[in-house]
Write a structure and sequence with these properties.
The chain is built from five helices and no strands. By secondary structure, the protein is an all-alpha fold. It has one domain. The longest helix has 35 residues. 21% of the residues are buried.
Length: 145
């Protein structure tokens, strides 16, 4: 079996799991902040869901994405570093990781009751991973630059 294809497959599987969480967690935050605004008793349920999604799905998926992605980066002949696209993709992946870290901080703020981000702001932030995903996919598939 070609190790490159195995690593690439594991990378794509990890990315899918990570992206699912990056799309869903901000939506949970929207519901959580709106429940808090009306003093709904579901806040504890949201905290449990948010914690488990981040801890047991998103964090391992992000780590696996980085491991398999870097593995491919260090395979000789896979990436042409004379082109611009690998750097744009890398910047978008760093942006995705920053967003993940920001979501983690917001989970802690929501759990402590000190979150100042509104449901509307979380809805807007929910577009960040979509934009970064578009940048990554276009650069990896089309290699335009």
């Amino acid at each position: 079996m070609d190790i490159y294809l195995l690593v690439k497959s594991l990378h794509v599987i990890s990315v899918i799991a990570w992206m699912a969480g990056l799309f869903y967690l901000p939506r949970l935050y929207v519901y959580h902040t709106e429940a808090d605004a009306v003093k709904d008793e579901t806040a504890e349920l949201f905290q449990t869901m948010e914690y488990k999604l981040l801890r047991y799905i998103m964090n391992p998926a992000m780590i696996a994405t980085w491991i398999f992605g870097l593995w491919m980066v260090f395979m000789p002949g896979i990436i042409d570093w004379g082109l611009i696209w690998p750097y744009l993709k890398a910047a978008a992946v760093v942006g995705m990781t920053w967003f993940h870290a920001w979501l983690s901080l917001q989970r802690k703020a929501l759990a402590s009751g000190s979150c100042s981000v509104t449901g509307k702001q979380f809805r807007l932030m929910n577009e960040v991973p979509t934009f970064l995903m578009i940048v990554i996919v276009i650069n990896v598939i089309m290699k335009p630059w």
